[in-house]
Structure formats: C-alpha cells, structure tokens
Amino acid sequence: MSWFWLAVGAAFFLATSDFLLKRNFSDLPVGQMILVRLSGLLPAGLALLLLAPIPPIKPQFYWSVALALPAEILALYLYNRAIQASPLALSLPFLSFTPLFVAVIGFLVLGESLDGWGLGGIVLVVIGAYTLNLHTIGQGGWSQPIRAIFREKGSWMILLTSLLYAYTLTMCKNAMLGSSPWFMAGVYPSVLAILVVAGMGVAGRLGWDWLRRPWGVAGVGLSTVAMVICHYWALSMAPAAYMIAVKRLSILMAVAYGGVFLKEARLGQHLLAGGLMVGGAVVILLWG
Known about the structure:
Layout: H1 3-25, H2 30-51, H3 59-85, H4 88-91, H5 97-109, H6 116-132, H7 144-151, H8 153-177, H9 181-202, H10 214-235, H11 240-247, H12 249-261, H13 267-287
Helix pairs in contact: 1-10, 1-11, 1-12, 2-3, 2-9, 2-10, 3-8, 5-8, 5-13, 6-13, 11-13, 12-13
C-alpha cells in the first residue's frame, strides 16, 4: 500500500477519534477522556511491541524517551482539555503551528536559516489563524481575531500543545534513530499510557464512568489503534516530513466533523482558515 494513502488513513482516524471523543465523552472529567484515548493507545502499543523485532538499541533511545515523556504527558492533558472546552474548529487548527515552532526554534537556537518558502509557510499559518476569528472584527477592530485566540481556551491550549509537540517530535525522532520506527511505536505509547494511569491512580483521579459507554469507547479505541498503525507504517515507507504533511489533513477533517455533525458555526470560514493553516504547515514541512 502507498505511504500516501496510509498517511491519509492516519489523518482520518485521528480526526475520527477526536470527534468521537468530543461527542461522547466531553461531559466527563478530562482525566476520564484521557483514559478513553489510552484504551486504544495502550493495546496498540503493546501489540506492536510484541510483533516488532527488537532492534539494536543505542543510548540515545533511552535519554530521548525520558526527556520527551514529561512534555508528552502535559501535551496529552492540554489536547484533551482543549477538545472538551472548545469547538473542534477553534482548537485543532492550531496544531498547524507545530512545524512553525520547529522552524522558529531551529532559527533561534541552532541558527538554521529560514528561506522564502519557510517564511511564506509561516505567513500562511498566521493568516489562517487570523481568519479563524475574522468575524470578530466588527466587535472591536482588527485586533479582535488575535484576542479571540487567547479568550478561547481550546485555541491557546492547542497552541501550547503545538509548542510541546515541536519539542517531543524532535526527541522522538532522535529515539527512533537509536532504535527503529516500529519498536518506538510499541514502546513509546505503552510507557506513556502506563505512566499516565499510574500517576492518575496515585493522585486519586481515576474514574470509571466512561466504561458505561462501551460503543463510544470502542469507536475511539479502534480509531486510535488504526491511526497508530497507519502512522508508523507510512513513516517506515516515506520521509517523516512528507508523511506528517499529509497527516495534517486531519485538521480539515476534524473541522468538517465539527461543522456537519456537531453543528459548529461558520463551517465555510473555518475550512478556509484551516486550509490556509494546513497549507502553511505543509509548505514549512516540505520546502521550508
């Protein structure tokens, strides 16, 4: 199977799991929403760990995973809290900022140059973010679309999540170079799930109301399993930048889910804004 269609599949299943999580579980505490997502993530990770051959493991694998996990746990909380708190169309498009943050961090910290394509991609992402709340201009001038980002909990939470992902993606890439994509696909989500559940148990935050909604749990769990498989299968066949660029289509799919099935307002405006942001992210990933 072509890596392109696998990446499209990863985008579709990610958007589907986000939609099902919001529709069926957003009335529960965010900790229980996380448990629902982990109900698919942990079995997928363990299955891949059992099936994948154990490669030679370099020291960089261990320290990269150790450095990535605290930020990954915080990102997991913010991601699910954003889905709970805000419309999908006003939160998930800000995932497009991840490659922007990677490019900016590379410029500031590593001195990597930003060429015309990279700058153009950044401009598209910023214009898209502005367009997302374009209708608020009439409420107080040109600055209102920017202020609206920080008034909407899901927007700034996903913006912060994107910054965390810019960091964890770098660490995870380093960990894969010290092992293999399939081994990383098995170990990383499994360790993440175990740490989160253990931490919630120690804090007394485990709740089980979500188990009373088995069909919703099955939908999120199976979508998550399918996403993980498609993600790492595509990653084993194509450069990471290409695969992630295609997977960013999940943002537009999630916006469509929100508009069509959750009756979120201004679907056309949000699809246009999301398209600009995804387009900018793709430009940065592929040519920036």
